[in-house]
Amino acid sequence: MAFKIYTKTGDKGTTGLFGGKRLPKHDLRIEAYGTVDELNAYVGLVRDVSENQDVRALLKAVQDRLFTIGASLATDPSKQMKTPDLHYSDIEILEKAIDEMETELPMLKNFILPGGHTTVSFCHLARVVCRRAERLTVKLSETEKVEEIILKYLNRLSDYLFVLSRKLAKDLNVEEVVWNARG
User: Has residue 4 been placed in a domain?
Assistant: First the structure.
């Protein structure tokens, strides 16, 4: 028998966690891992439009880690289930990439507006979705167990995406759009 994408079990507004527990589709846990999934789609978009093979490779690794985070968040916390691991070395990889990119960028003296080039804008979209995923996961962690490393990874990933947006602008020879406050 072939695998079917539809199960009809969610037709009444609930979805199942790994481990069997069913939750309303608006539950904070579902919102958190759903936003991580949305983030993964945006990271894939940035990967698709990037011409730098090193960036593409790192973004593929990020997507793998986001699936790991999604699996952890989609698992019933009351069950002892094996999920893929996230490691502190995954955070260190992002930090190293940030440090390397920053050596090539001018010091940040102003707030930067998203835009200037489609690729840069896609990167900013990924960054803001990452921030939302982080906020939802932090909120979830206030009432349920969430591994601290997940919060750290999402925080560092949003930093990476911001610096990457600046690096992409530089590589594309696009001037950063500086915010000029009135008043």
Answer: no
